[in-house]
Structure formats: C-alpha cells, structure tokens
C-alpha cells in the first residue's frame, strides 16, 4: 500500500481516493492543506470531512508526542557520555500533517514578527510594472470547527506574473508571493459577497480574496483574466480569437505562465475581408441558391439554384444545374442575394482576425500572455478648455483625450498609454478609394510582385543628397485610471482639471526656424524673418508631474457679472514638459510693432564657428508706457555665446536656446537692441565639408 493510500485510510477518506486523484490531490501534503469547504467542493461529504478532521487531530497529537520523547532521550544520552563537548546541532524538524490547518509557510497571522525582508526571499526581484494594486482581504488559517479568518493585506500584481501582498501599503518587505505561473483559473467565489478565488496547479492551493466593493472586485478579476487559457494536444491546431480587426502578425509574442519553455512552432494569421469574392471562393463545388432582383414591374426576384463553379479562363463564376441543364453566370451588375442552403463552412463564411498555432510544450494546460502590434486601431487627440477669471489672475484648465476605437474589439478595464509619433510626409500612403466589389470575380492569385525603382540614393536617377531634417521625437502619455473602450465608440477622458495662477504679460516673438540635427550654416536661413508677433498673453508654470500633450485650446473669459463667458481666442498648444513655462496668447497688442534685421554674418567652416549680428527694434505707438518681453531664439546651433548686446539680456527660465529682454518703452517712442552671437563647435555633415586637396607627399588616388 502506498503512503498516500495509507494516509487516506488513517483519516477515513479511502473511498474518495479516485475522486481526489482525478482532481489532482495525490499527495498527503496537498490533502493536509484542504479545508472542509474545499473538500466538500471536490465531492467529499461534509460528515466524512469532519470525521477526517477528528482522526487527523488524533494523528497529529501522536506525532507531536513521539517527536518530543525522541528529542528528550537524545538530549539525555548526549549529556551522560564522557566524550568531549561537541557543537550542538538542531535535529531536523519532523513533518506534521494536519487536516484543516495550513502549513507554517502559508499562514498569514496578524503576528508577523518573524517575517523576513523581501531581499531574503528566493526568486527574481519584483521590478516590473505594477498592473493592479489595492487593499484586499485574504482568507488565512481556518479549522473545521473554527471561524474563518480574513486578514486585510495590500496586494500588488506585477507584469511578470506575480502577486505580492504586504501588511501595509507603505511596506517594502512583502509577506509572501503568489506565483501566477502555476495558476489554473481566476473566478468569482459564491461563498462571500465581493469575493473571488485563484486556483493553483502546482500546489493545489486555492487563494480566497475579498474586495471592498464590486468595482474593485471587477477590476482585479478582469486584470487577472487578461491572461488567456489554452490546451495543447500534440499537433492539433490552436485557435486564438477575439483579436482586433488587423494586427501585425510579425510582432506576435507568446509567453506561457505555466511552462516557460513552451513556444509556438507554427503560426498562421487569418483575416478574411468581408466581400463576395472571399465568400464565393469558399463555396466552389457546393450547391447554393441565388436570388436576382428584377425591374419594378415584378415584386419577386428570379431564383437560380445549382453548383457553383469557377471558370479560370473567363475569370467568372457560374451556377450549373444538372437537373434542368442550365448555367447562370453571376454578372457584375446584379444585386445578388446568396442562399447557402444547408452548406456549413467549418471556419465560417468570413473568418475574423485570428491566429492558428501549433504549440510545443510538455504541459497540456497553459495560462499565457499575448502581445502584438497594430496600426490604425485607434484615433486620438487632445483638446483643452481654459476659463479665465475677469481679473486675469487665475484660470481653470481642463484637458480631454478624445479616443475613437476602430479596432473591431472591445477592451474592458484597460490601461491606456497614448503615443504621439511625428508624421513623415515621405511615408504617407494615399488612401485607396473603396470602389466596391463587382462580379465577375477573379480567383486570388499567388505571388503578386511589382517591380519598380529601388529607393537607394544614386540608383535609378535618385539623388545622392540626404536631407536629415529636424529631429523627430515621440511623446508618451498615460491615463491614470482604467477605462473600457467599446468597439466603434468615441470616448472623452478628462486627464487634467486644475486651477492655476496666471500673470498677464505683453510678449514679442519671432517665427524663426526650428532646431535641426546639424548646425544651420546658410546665411539666409532665418534672416528673412523681419517682423515680430506682439501679443498680450498669459504666462504660467506647468507644475504638475506629467507632460501636456499638444492640442487645440479654446480660451474663454468670464464676464464681470459672473454669468456666462466670452470666447477670447482659439489656438494650438504645443507639447510641454513638467516645470515648463507656458505662454497663452490672448490677443494682438495694437500700435506696438517689432522688427528684426541681420547686420552681419561670418562663417569659418574649417574652424567650425560662425558669428552673426542682429538689430532688433520695438516701436510703441501708444500714448502710455508699455512693458514687453522680447524673446529671441538661437536656432543655428546649441553651442553659443552672446559676445555683445547693447541692452543686457537674460536667459530664458526653462529653454536653453532662447534669450529674453525685459523692456520698458516710453509713450510714442522706441527701443533698438544690437547683439552679436558666436556659435562654436558646429556639427556639419561630411557632404558639406570642403574636400581637402592631396599634397605632394601623398599622390592622388586613381
């Protein structure tokens, strides 16, 4: 008799051996961890479970007594010998099997004085992204006749597939870790409101967790169930469905949480277009019925029935009826209605976006994560509403993400990361017009190749000059809350709502060129900007901990009576980082003008430096004094030095390549500023550098 059978005989569960083995409980250690409710859920009668508990307690007390007697005898024997004293060694602890009580390593009492810090636990460190966190109650130790103990703990679900729980939210040392790589399922638990359970495969353990409200319960379950399930059966294909309308099959990544060595040996991506062509392709050789409408004089369409055949030479489809020896060609002008009769297509008439896999693994059941890239699934933009108080000292800023889901799939309780990438005009593709489908319909061809010019500089008449242009940057924005994005739904999410102090200023800017990857050494580059923009504006510091995405802004000012507001301006806001100073234009400042004139330029391309001088002029046509801030951008290169300025300048508070002048201009007067800037260490492409002539010592290469 095996140890497992002997143990079941001792506790009175020998008649349930087959049932326990079928459910994966084939070890005394696993049986000892089961509670009464868990045994009943497996199929053990409640009376038999209680009887097993009483016998297990008697067996436990016998084990403890035997262990104590052996320990005392050993100590006495050692003391009575005349051998030299040896270093005392602790005997290995005896293994006790207790029904209805968890092992010491799984207990979760309130007294945690013996908890080791997180660094003492084995396994990798918890350094991945936290997908979900919050307080939950965890069911700890429980006896058959004792009360259920639910302990409040702070849980964190990490992206690597682990759940760590802590005694308090601020704790760094975790109490224990739940490895989701051994999880079989996460589902609701009907025994308690707002409760759910995680069933484990490796230890046959079931973790019971209790959320404080239904919203948190749904959030945890949906996050844990983001991992999918599959069963591997040799070379039988596995279908992965419920995917977005179109994905990049080259970017598909499979990660098994049950078997890290599992991999996808074969993959086929299917996504049928919903067109008559694709449907008829699958119906060739089958008997179908076609209804073709007639003119307005007839209320019923004409019906044709027959076997669908395809004539490759004519590139057309036809219905062939052997009974009446008739053939009906499907014309392109007919609005045809197809009746498939009793024909059933195994994979459906139109197969949605899906993956067909052959997975190699030693395990049969898997929890796995699936990731992929896709394009044009979502469209989003940011917009703002600013309401300014009548005194122009405070504004209320609200920002919204507008997201349209065009993926063909609903994303429940999803995390949002919005990415804005720069548009490249060279890679834009012309949108193809949807001309509809027509019959006759050609069969799909294999190997559609098109020959053209290779996009290699210098070949096929192409130019060898490479235009590097300005640096392109991608910006990433996160939304702090989880949300549900339904298919074909447009949703607005408020990501900022704050009141901010502002200051009214008069500002002068010039529309100088943008910064480039290489130094700008063309003399005329930017020198044609001769007129400045003079605006009354609001200035404030963005002191939040996240960036502001670019978007359209509608600026309004409250009326003095407190009822209603007037639209002051509509403009586009650029991207701003935390602690940036933001300028909000109100309206143009009348009768104040600004001009800009290049007065000198000298370039030494061998020493990689240049010197440029400018004259800036501001005229005040008002009959009152004007205070303005004049801003100048040093766009040519990042290494610069102001060697001369007729009026002292100041550095821009946040931008490293801008300088400012704070000017006070008397009524009906003007101010002129002359300054000189020295750019050094210019970074210039080799194609623009002068070619060195070979010396006499080194003959020219042939």
TrEMBL record:
Record's compositionally biased regions (Pro residues): 85-94
Gene3D superfamilies named among the record's database cross-references: Pleckstrin-homology domain (PH domain)/Phosphotyrosine-binding domain (PTB), Transcription Factor, Ets-1
GO biological process: macropinocytosis
Biased composition (Low complexity): 61-84
InterPro entries linked to this entry: PH-like_dom_sf, PH_domain, PI-Interact_SigTrans_Reg, SAM, SAM/pointed_sf
PROSITE patterns: PH_DOMAIN, SAM_DOMAIN
UniProt region (Disordered), positions on chain: 52-122
PH domain location: 129-229
SAM domain mapped to chain residues: 1-56
Protein name per the record: PH domain-containing protein
Organism: Cavenderia fasciculata
């Amino acid at each position: 008799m095996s140890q497992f059978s002997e143990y079941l005989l001792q506790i009175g569960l020998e008649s349930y051996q087959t049932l326990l083995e079928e459910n994966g409980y084939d070890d005394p250690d696993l049986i000892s961890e089961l509670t009464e409710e868990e045994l009943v859920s497996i199929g053990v009668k409640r009376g038999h479970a209680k009887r097993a508990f009483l016998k297990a307690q008697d067996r436990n007390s016998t084990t403890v007594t035997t262990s104590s007697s052996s320990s005392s005898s050993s100590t006495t024997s050692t003391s009575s010998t005349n051998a030299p004293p040896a270093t005392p060694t602790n005997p290995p602890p005896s293994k006790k099997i207790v029904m209805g009580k968890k092992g010491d390593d799984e207990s979760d009492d309130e007294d945690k004085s013996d908890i080791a810090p997180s660094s003492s636990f084995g396994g990798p460190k918890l350094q991945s992204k936290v997908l979900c966190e919050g307080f939950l109650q965890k069911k700890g130790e429980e006896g058959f006749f004792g009360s259920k103990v639910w302990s409040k703990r702070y849980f964190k679900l990490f992206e690597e597939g682990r759940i760590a729980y802590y005694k308090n939210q601020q704790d760094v040392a975790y109490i224990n870790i739940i490895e989701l790589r051994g999880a079989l399922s996460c589902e609701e638990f009907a025994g308690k409101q707002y409760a759910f359970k995680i069933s484990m495969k490796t230890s046959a353990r079931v973790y019971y967790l209790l959320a404080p409200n239904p919203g948190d319960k749904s959030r945890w379950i949906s996050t844990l169930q983001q991992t999918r399930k599959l069963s591997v059966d040799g070379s039988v294909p596995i279908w992965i469905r419920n995917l977005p309308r179109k994905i990049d099959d080259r970017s598909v990544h499979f990660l098994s949480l049950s078997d890290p060595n599992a991999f996808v040996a074969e993959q086929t991506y299917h996504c049928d277009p919903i067109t008559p062509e694709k449907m008829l392709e699958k119906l060739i050789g089958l008997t179908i019925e076609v209804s073709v409408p007639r003119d307005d004089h007839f209320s019923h369409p004409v019906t044709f029935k027959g076997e669908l055949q395809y004539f490759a030479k004519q590139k057309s489809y036809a219905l062939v009826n052997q009974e009446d020896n008739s053939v009906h060609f499907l014309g392109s002008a007919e609005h045809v209605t197809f009746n498939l009769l009793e024909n059933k297509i195994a994979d459906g008439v139109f197969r949605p976006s899906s993956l067909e896999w052959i997975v190699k693994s030693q395990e049969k059941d898997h929890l796995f994560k699936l990731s992929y890239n896709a394009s044009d699934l979502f469209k989003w933009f940011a917009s703002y509403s600013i309401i300014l108080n009548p005194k122009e000292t405070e504004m209320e800023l609200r920002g919204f993400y507008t997201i349209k889901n065009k993926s063909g799939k609903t994303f429940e309780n999803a995390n949002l990361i919005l990415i804005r990438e720069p548009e490249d005009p060279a890679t834009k593709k012309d949108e193809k017009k949807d001309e509809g489908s027509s019959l006759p319909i050609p069969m799909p061809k294999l190997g559609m190749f098109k020959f053209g010019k290779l996009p290699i500089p210098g070949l096929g008449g192409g130019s060898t000059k490479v235009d590097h242009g300005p640096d392109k940057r991608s910006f990433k924005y996160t939304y702090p809350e989880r949300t549900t994005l339904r298919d074909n739904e447009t949703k607005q999410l408020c990501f900022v709502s704050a009141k901010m102090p502002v200051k009214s200023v008069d500002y002068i800017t010039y529309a100088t060129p943008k910064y480039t990857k290489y130094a700008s050494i063309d003399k005329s580059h930017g020198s044609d900007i001769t007129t400045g923009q003079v605006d009354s504006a609001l200035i404030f510091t963005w002191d939040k901990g996240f960036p502001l995405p670019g978007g359209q802004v509608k600026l309004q000012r409250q009326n003095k009576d407190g009822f209603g507001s007037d639209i002051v301006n509509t403009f586009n806001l650029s991207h701003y980082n935390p602690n940036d100073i933001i300028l909000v234009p109100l309206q143009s400042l009348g009768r104040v003008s600004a001009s800009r004139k290049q007065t000198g330029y000298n370039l030494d391309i061998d020493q990689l430096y240049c010197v440029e001088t400018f004259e800036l002029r501001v005229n005040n046509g008002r009959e009152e004094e004007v205070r303005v801030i004049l801003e100048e951008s040093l766009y040519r290169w990042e290494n610069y030095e102001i060697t001369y300025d007729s009026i002292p300048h100041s550095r821009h508070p946040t931008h490293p390549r801008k300088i400012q002048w704070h000017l006070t201009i008397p009524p009906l007067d003007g101010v002129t500023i002359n300054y000189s800037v020295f750019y050094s260490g210019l970074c210039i492409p080799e194609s623009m550098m002068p070619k060195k002539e070979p010396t006499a010592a080194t003959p020219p290469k042939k």
